[in-house]
Amino acid sequence: MDFSDKLITSLTVLLTGFVVVFAVLLILIGIIKGYSLIVTKLEQKVKEKKNQKKAASAKPETSVQQPKAVKVTETVESGISDEIVAVIAAAVDAMYGSSGKARIKSIKKSDNSRSAWSKAGVLDNTRPF
Amino acid sequence: MEILNGFVDSIVGLFRDSGLMVLGWQNYVMIGVAIVLIYLAIGRQYEPLLLLPIAFGMLLVNLYPSIMAAPTTTLQPVTEYMAEHGGQAASYAITELGGVQYYNVPENGGLFYYLYQGVKLGIYPPLIFLGIGAMTDFGPLIANPKSFILGAAAQLGIFITFIGAILLGFTDKEAGAIAIIGGADGPTAIYVATRLASHLLGPIAVAAYSYMALVPIIQPPIMKFLTTKKERAVKMTQLRSVSKLEKIIFPIVVIIIVALFLPSAAPLVGMLMLGNIFKESGVVDRICKAAQNELMNIITIFLGVTVGATATGEVFLTTQTLGIVVLGLAAFCVGTAGGILFGKLMYKFTGGKVNPLIGSAGVSAVPMAARVSQKVGQEENPSNFLLMHAMGPNVAGVIGSAVAAGVLLSVLG
Q: Are residues B164 and B82 in the same domain?
């Protein structure tokens, strides 16, 4: 294979590869967006119907309590790594958003009162991939 | 005296058969390399799940090369065979040479030869993908499908390295097998290497897994070099929650599209999606757990040990290996850069809503590359959480590299 052949082969693979990979993944983007939209709308409709049914059968409720913002200083027990603090903070952020409504009060290790079976159960259900 | 002579003959025979007489200097060098890799796997915990079996396979094959020997057939004159076996004939095939009849006496191959068939026939990598699919949550990708663009961009390393490999004198098939290291996906690299250049499997697999283990060292300097402080500090908005139905539809849609447009990627992507539908359907919990744990672990042992066993001294200690190591690193770096640069484009087009750091996760290496994006982002802004955003390109990279593998197999295979 001389230099020009090598160049032709290389550019063919580069062009084919890039175009095909992008094309396939762009098609997937379009389809996923499309079906996500349909599924979300369908699920909203189902929810609305359920809510209407509930509203018709249940008594009117009085008031809904709004969660209050938490404002406290941070106290992190020794032996808890920054990584764990970051994960807990991320979970709180995911729940409440970055609105500043929530603040972590303190992070403490729980006492080891769980049985071995209970721990195994928790581990099995929370093990990351 | 006869006993003594017999004893001496036995000892001499044993010595002649021992590794001390059979092994060459290359084997001893590879034994050293294997021990270093074992240290890295245990002492430094670099991808130990794969590096340890690979290193031990490498150690075993260089101590006892026959463990990887293919089955052979020996020709033995029929009369001689019958004399040895008390006049009993055998049912072996007979070959006649020069008027003499010979039995084709089969001899079994080494243990690893048989286990290696799973690699050679392309069985193990798709099975590993089945396990990966059963463990992967495609939710972040479904929530933000644009991540696919970053997963595609990070495959740039594969195609650019292909050019480098061709220009360095590798054949087109060898270049394709080497370039796939840039996909940062071990099973995909092995799958492509066995199909395009099986003689390079050992160095390619070792390079691929070594670089995957070194993602936290290789990627951050490139990420920091290509992004500004302001870009790295971008906080991304929380991803929407994805419903169960969307997650169930995803694997079906992906396999339909990929298999229709690129059938050669179907074994890898198909098994990935099969594993994922096991997980997301929620109705085959037992099968899902088997794919995630038992099957995945067993295949990992077989795959690791036999891939390591392909790295014999004669194959590994060549200038080609050096070329593969250098090209593999280049592929990884260019892939990371490709993802980051497209991340920057997305940053510009979205008016600063996308943090370009998530682009580097498009090289696969799940979930290590996503963790690196998170870590580098948090160094700039401690309240920044990019992990879930980076998981999108990360899992898109797995699909992207499988599609890129399909392209290489179609064009070069």
A: no
Average of per-residue pLDDT across A41-57: 88
> Are B96 and B52 within one domain?
no
Contact B237, B353 (CB under 8 A): yes
Same domain as B305, residue B220: yes
Q: Which of B87, B107, B127 is the last residue of a domain?
A: B107
The pLDDT value recorded for residue B288 is 95
Does residue B96 share a domain with residue B244? no
Residue written as token pair 């095939």: B93
Across the interface, whether the CB atoms of A43 and B399 are under 8 A apart is answered no
Residues paired with residue A75 on neighbouring β-strands, in sequence order: A106
Nearest to B253 among A25, A35, A129 (CB): A35
Q: Return the pLDDT at B180.
A: 92
- Say if residue A64's pLDDT is above 60: no
Q: How many domains does chain B have?
A: 3
Whether residues B203 and B87 share a domain: the answer is no
| ipTM of the complex, rounded to two decimals | 0.81
Query: Best-predicted range by mean pLDDT among A50-59, A94-103, B109-118?
Result: B109-118
Residue A71 has pLDDT above 50, yes or no: no
- Please, what is the angle between helix B156-167 and helix B319-349, to 10°? 150
Strand pairing class (A106-107; A75-76): parallel
C-alpha of B271 from chain center: 15
Beta bridge partners of B16: none
CA distance B407 to A87: 39
The low-confidence residues of chain B, meaning pLDDT below 50, are none
B159 touching A, CB under 8 A? yes
CB contact under 8 A, A23 and B261: yes
- Contact call for residues B184 and B321 (beta carbons, < 8 A): no
pLDDT at residue A72 greater than cutoff 70 = no
Residue with tokens 């069985």: B123
Predicted local distance difference test score (pLDDT) of residue B45: 84
Higher pLDDT, A97 or A20: A20
Question: For the stretch A22-51, what's the b/e string if a residue is b when 16 or more beta carbons lie within 10 angstroms of its beta carbon?
Answer: bebbebbbebbeebbeebeeeeeeeeeeee
Q: Which of B170, B249, B273, B408 to mutate to test the interface with A (most CBs of A within 10 A)?
A: B249
* B94-97, strands of its sheet edge to edge: B72-77, B100-107, B94-97
Question: Quick one: pLDDT at residue A100?
Answer: 63
Per-residue pLDDT, A108: 80
Query: How high is the pLDDT of residue B149?
Result: 93
User: Which candidate from B145, B250, B408 shows the least CB-CB separation from A29?
Assistant: B145
Instruction: Give the nearest chain A residue to B176 (CA atoms).
Output: A13
Q: Is B260 found in the same domain as B288?
A: yes
**Which residues form the domain of B63?**
2-69
Same domain flag for B151 and B241: yes
Both B291 and B331 in one domain: the answer is yes
Task: Say if B326 is an interface residue toward chain A (CB within 8 Å).
Answer: no
